[in-house]
Write a structure and sequence with these properties.
Elements (H helix, E strand, L loop, with lengths): L5 E6 L3 H13 L3 E7 L3 H11 L3 E3 L2 H5 L6 E4 L6 H10 L3 E4 L7 H13 L4 E3 L7 H12 L5 E11 L17 H17 L5 E8 L7 E9 L5 E7 L1 E12 L2 E5 L11 E7 L2 E7 L4 H15 L9 H18 L3 E2 L3
Parallel strand pairs: 1-2, 1-4, 2-3, 4-5, 5-6, 7-10
Antiparallel strand pairs: 7-11, 8-9, 8-15, 9-10, 11-12, 12-13, 13-14
């Protein structure tokens, strides 16, 4: 008998898990959350009761020992991603790891290798990539309708400056805006261009009030052919999450490029030779689609939406961006 649903365990009670990922799995066609763990047993129990999860555990180890759990979602602080991805792989659990995937590309490579060694599937939780609008945007680009791509501009900003005790403000835990949200435009540009950048130049505001992490960063990624991604990301600025793809004959604008409401149609705009049209897709929950795509990879052997090597490649770019921001210099990526 073919297993119809992937049984999920959640390692931690992070806000992204409670607000978005767990409800998304619950609404998915092929996933169900069967367990949640926290180092605070009472917190795990309360979260399980609130969200209708059958089991709760007071340790991550206990959840990994549960034979009824097929896959785990890891929304832990960034510095714990490597340890718990590898421990999950050793326990025979498939892994969906929250972004940023790791602290650096070397850690990412270790995580990928561990999952390969133990025969489990691994993916980075870039939920936006599972939304059908990105396939539609790629289709428009590949059709040549907007001509040759000349540049991409991405933004992702929010203001969390009042919360000075947040783990995002701790350098040892992988804090900072590049790690937290800069990864999105970086990932999107790599996806839409289908190649890796050659160099990175980033200027950042490192805030002494927030552990010295980058609370705002503006960057330039150089791709072959004179094409560039310009982007900015911030945890101390007014909120935006947008993407614009500029071509020789037109442009594509995504006003809610990465975070979008699950109960409203997705709208983006295409302008060709001065004429602007609206492209609308039905409302979907991109977290549910992420869960279903991962389930298809595990249960059906379907190809992954995001290749297993992609997190390593994305972290190589993040490494270069952070180095550039810290040294105030252009950093060339290895070819």
């Amino acid at each position: 008998m073919v297993q119809s649903k992937l049984r999920w365990g959640i390692l931690g009670c992070a806000g992204i898990a409670v607000r978005s990922v767990i409800p998304g799995i619950a609404q998915s066609a092929r996933g169900e959350v069967v367990a949640i763990a926290s180092r605070d047993e009472s917190k795990a129990k309360q979260t399980a009761e609130k969200l209708g999860i059958p089991k709760s555990y007071g340790s991550y180890e206990a959840l990994l020992a549960d034979a009824d759990v097929d896959a785990v979602y890891i929304p832990l602080p960034n510095n714990l991603h490597k340890e718990w991805t590898i421990r999950a792989a050793e326990a025979g659990k498939h892994v969906l790891c929250e972004k940023p995937f790791s602290m650096d590309a070397a850690e990412a490579a270790d995580m990928v290798e561990a999952c390969r060694k133990h025969g489990v599937k691994l993916a980075e939780a870039f939920m936006y990539r599972h939304h059908p609008r990105y396939a539609r945007v790629k289709e428009i680009i590949d059709s040549g309708e907007i001509g040759t791509i000349r540049g991409i501009h991405g933004t992702f900003t929010f203001n969390n400056s009042a919360n000075t005790t947040n783990f995002r403000n701790d350098p040892a835990m992988g804090g900072g805006s590049i790690y937290d949200i800069g990864v999105y435009p970086i990932s999107a540009a790599r996806l839409l261009l289908g190649r890796e950048p050659e160099a990175a130049t980033v200027h950042a505001f490192f805030s002494p009030e927030h552990g010295g992490v980058d609370m705002m960063a503006s960057g330039l990624l150089e791709f072959s052919g004179g094409v560039a991604l310009t982007f900015d990301c911030a945890m101390w600025a007014a909120g935006r999450n947008t993407l614009e793809v500029l071509g020789t004959e037109g442009r594509i604008e995504l006003p809610s490029a990465f975070v979008c409401p699950p109960n409203a149609p997705s709208v983006f705009y295409v302008t060709v030779k001065g004429e602007r049209r609206e492209d609308k897709l039905d409302a979907v929950n991109q977290y549910s689609l992420q869960a279903d795509d991962f389930a298809a990879t595990v249960l059906d052997g379907a190809p992954s939406v995001i290749s297993s090597d992609d997190p390593v490649l994305n972290m190589r770019v993040v490494d270069a961006c952070l180095e550039s921001a810290r040294t105030r210099a252009r950093v060339v990526l290895p070819s």
